[in-house]
Design brief:
The protein is built from 2 helices and no strands. It is elongated, with a radius of gyration of 12 Å. Helix 1 packs antiparallel against helix 2 (about 30-50). It is an all-alpha fold and about 50 residues long. It is about 75% helix and about 0% strand. The chain has helices at about 5-20, 30-50.
Length: about 50
Amino acid sequence: MNKIELNQQLNQLTPQIVALELSGQTRYTSNECALLWQEARRIQYLIKNLH
């Protein structure tokens, strides 16, 4: 994977997370939201450490 692909994946996750949080769900109260946050953090880590 390259940074462009990872950024595209992250761009797909972000609106889903925002929608869930606007509906009152958080990563602490919703498994779905927590899994999305976990995946987003993983992608951010990969982007940061990709050389």
